[in-house]
Amino acid sequence: MSTSEETGDPETRSAGEAYRLLFDQAGEMVSILDLEGRITSVNPAAERLTGYPATELVGRLAIELVEPSLREQVARRFQERLLGDSSPLETVLVTREGKHVPVLTTSVLIVRDGRPAGVLGLITNLAPIRGALSEKAEAESNFRHAEARFRNFFASAPIGEAIVSPDGRFLEVNEALCAITGYSGPELCGLSFQEITHPDDLAPDLGLVQQLISGEIRTYQMEKRYLHKRGQIVWVLLSVSLVQSDSGEPEYFISQIQDITERRRSRDAIDRSEARLAEAQHVARIGSWEWEVATGAVTWSAELYELFEVDAGTPMTYTRYLDRVHPDDLSLVESTVENAGRTGESYELEHRVELTGGDVRWIHGRGQVTLGPDGPVAMRGTAQDITDQKDAEAERDRLREALYDAQKLEALGRFAGGVAHDFNNMLTAIKGYSELLLAELQPGTRQHHEAEQIRRAADQASSLPEQLLAFARKQPLEAKVVDLNDLVTAAATLLRHLVEERVELIVIPAPHPAFAKIDPEQIEQTLVNLALNARDAMPAGGSLTITVSTTANPGKAILDSDQGATVRSETAGSYAVIAVADDGEGMDAETRERAFEPFFTTKPQGVGSGLGLASVHGTVVQSGGSIRLESEPGQGTTVLLSFPSVTPDAVAASVTESRIRPVVLLVEDENLVRELVSSVLSRNGFDVHEVGNGVEALELLDRLDSPLDLLITDLVMP
Cβ atoms within 10 A of the Cβ of 198, count? Predict the structure, then answer.
């Protein structure tokens, strides 16, 4: 297009080409309007801005591209333009797609031959410019709002807020921090955080600050103590971050300070309580546990690890716990826990656990269950070591049983003693009168033979009351000083016949005399009883060894409680000892426990009376000695008889010359015995005075004119 007539002038033609090139390459919309406002020419930028092709734009009124509400304003300004007004105009262009685009219109009047010929307009799209300006304004607005919000939050935050310089000075603080420290805002801004930090917490705090400045960490948090203006200590939770400049230099710290004094006191109280609980658990040997059923995780207290001798911190499970339970108690524990998990009921039980070294402990367990919709969710409880209590209970039961046995033995002893006394009185009469008959009957006659049989039967029956009295410890003893070597050697001849050929009898006397004050006949009978027991314990033969020795015992009990019976303990001193040992079947713990009980026997019914060892025990103890039994199944049995050693004294026998008829006082409550003894004494020249009890004896003594030569009395009378 052209604004002047075509001419052949080369210079004019060159200028027109340059104009057209500038017109087409312009980045903004350029259009030419005629005096009526119709578009006569547009550049490609106009097509891009309006969305219309040039063919639809040329010949069209430019005002038709303006937003309808602004067309009147644009038409008025167009007329003013024709009259010489060149001021720009902002308006809104409507594109072919209906999009409203803000534009700035500037124009130049085209003049030909001194008269207006049209208008050259430049339409600039304001949308990108306005967008950039809007974003900047919005950013500035957002910054102002953010700063306002920060200031508002900083001032009204419920926890302490502070902006702190890199050297630690407070630059800005809020009211909450003032309340925490007791200082006013201006006072705090005149201080550094180092000045109000507890000395013990300052070094850790400064170390974290240096790590923050060096870039090792981005923020840090710690619990520390502030020194309040009034002097008290305030615990705070401090959170710190660093703000840096664009060049990376530290500008200031932002600190948040939360007062945790009450929380710290509560936590310290809990810690003290837990420490006291742990100490109480340690003293009481109680540990606690928790079991998360879903995960299987089991948590133990430190005391429980110690109780079960498991390394502290070892991960535990319910299965590992069951591995510690004693096999005999495993089903009890599993069924108890299973029932609790099913019903939700709490439980208590006692069971044993096996430790690593093989030791066994008794545990008293308690448990509570937390049930969920699908079963147990968790269990928690305690376990207490009650081994000492169980041992004490066992000892109490043992002592109670021993007391009961002692009472039973005492009662049996009284009964046996009474029976033996009465029976012995009758046997004494039978034997005595049979002796009198034999003295008067002619030997070889039938009457003499029958009287002899009466005496023999009485002699055989006399062993029973002797055994009963030995058990009751009431048999009359004729104690004398005896060398046990001589006693055992003399008894060996009889014992060899008793034990039969299948048993080898070995006698080992002491290398020196072993004197004891005993009744030799009773101790010999004791050896007979022990030899018979040893023979029966060796049905296939073996050896029986009787050893005599002397020893100094430091006061140790002769028979431990786990060896079968409770007998008198030896005191410190020197002892003469007879040890009777066989290599027979031996005894188990239960048999040892009852070995000295009267009427207890391991022999078949009708073979033994069960009084053998009981009478042995009674005889030895009545003799002032003690007895010890050592035996294990298959390892034979050893019985040790210990008697206090004595030194033999010279025995002075004083014989009083008797008168023509010595005077004898006979005291016996049993008429039959009294009459027999009186008859025998009288026949032998004694002047016998008979009474039935002690009171009568005293009364008779007061009436007697002649002195008394001999007193014969029953030891047991009413």
Answer: 14
Structure tokens at 110: 């085209």
List, for residues 23-49, the tens digit of each pLDDT value: 777 778 888 888 888 999 898 988 898
CA dihedral sign, ordered 371, 373, 374, 377: negative
Q: Tell me the whole-structure pTM to 2 decimals.
A: 0.36
Whose tokens are 């066992």? That residue is 394
Low-confidence ranges of the chain (pLDDT < 70): 1-19, 22, 131-139, 141-143, 145-153, 277-285, 402, 405-421, 460-477, 553-573, 598-612, 649-660, 715-718
Q: What are phi and psi of 702, to 5 degrees?
A: -65, -30
**Cα–Cα distance for residue pair 711/663, rounded to 1 Å:** 9
Largest CA-CA distance found in the chain, in angstroms, rounded? 209
Rounded CA separation 609/600 (Å): 8
3-class SS shares of the chain: helix, strand, coil, % to 5: 45, 25, 30
Task: State the sign of the Cα–Cα–Cα–Cα dihedral 311, 317, 319, 322.
Answer: positive
Give the start-end residues of each E strand in 260-406.
286-292, 297-300, 347-354, 360-372, 375-385
The pLDDT score that the predictor gives to residue 5 is 40
Residues 553 and 585: beta-carbon distance below 8 Å = no
pLDDT of residue 198: 94
User: What CA–CA distances, in Å, run from 707 to 102, 633, 665, 667?
Assistant: 165, 63, 11, 16
| Adjacency order of strands within the sheet including 29-33 | 39-42, 29-33, 115-125, 100-112, 89-94
Other beta carbons within 10 Å of 450: 12
Q: Which three-class secondary structure string do you get for 84-129?
A: CCCCCEEEEEECCCCCEEEEEEEEEEEEECCEEEEEEEEEEECHHH
